[in-house]
Design goal:
The protein has about 180 residues and is α+β, with helices and mostly antiparallel strands. It has helices at about 5-15, 40-50, 105-110, 120-135, 140-150, 160-175; strands at about 20-25, 30-35, 70, 75, 90. It folds into two domains: about 20-95, Beta-grasp domain (Ubiquitin-like (UB roll)); about 105-175, DNA polymerase, domain 1 (Orthogonal Bundle), CATH 1.10.150. It binds FE2/S2 (inorganic) cluster (FES) (2 copies).
Amino acid sequence: MSLGSKSQSDTAAAQGGPGLVSVAMTVNSKAVSADVDPRTLLVQFLREHLRLTGTHVGCDTSQCGACVVHLDGRAVKSCTTLAASCEGSKVTTIEGLAQGGQLHPMQEAFREHHGLQCGFCTPGMIMAAVDIANRKGPNLDETTIRHELEGNLCRCTGYHNIVAAVKAGAAAMGGARQAAE
Ligand code: FES
Ligand code: FES
């Protein structure tokens, strides 16, 4: 029977092309879709397909947190998330935090408290920090912040200013979920 080749080509067509899968999601409040290799990581989808290069890749071991974005309102490492698994989801990247030309309170706090030096880790730090504030509320102590930031590495600032920024940013958020999602 020739079922094999027919079903394969039918499947390929349904998937958006030979070897590709169609994926659609909302990124920073905008509907986006593409046909991608099924192995495409969310961070590749964001950076290479959507040109949202604020989300960084700092390691290949899922340790640094430079790639953190929000997926349906929760922080995830986009280097270990398949784009295809985000079908129908809402993704927020660092580019989507500021609203109406105003920095998000957590971005403002990092600026105010000098919570960055080279800035490479900063998008992931800020996305993680907003998630911490969303989950833990506006009154964060240093121990909680340091524990919660264990998955985010900074190679140059030292953590003192980052912790101060997260504390101030969470307070400024005032317990409101102020990420775009
Ligand atoms: S790039 Fe380092 S944890 Fe994702
Ligand atoms: S500011 Fe340079 S890695 Fe954190």
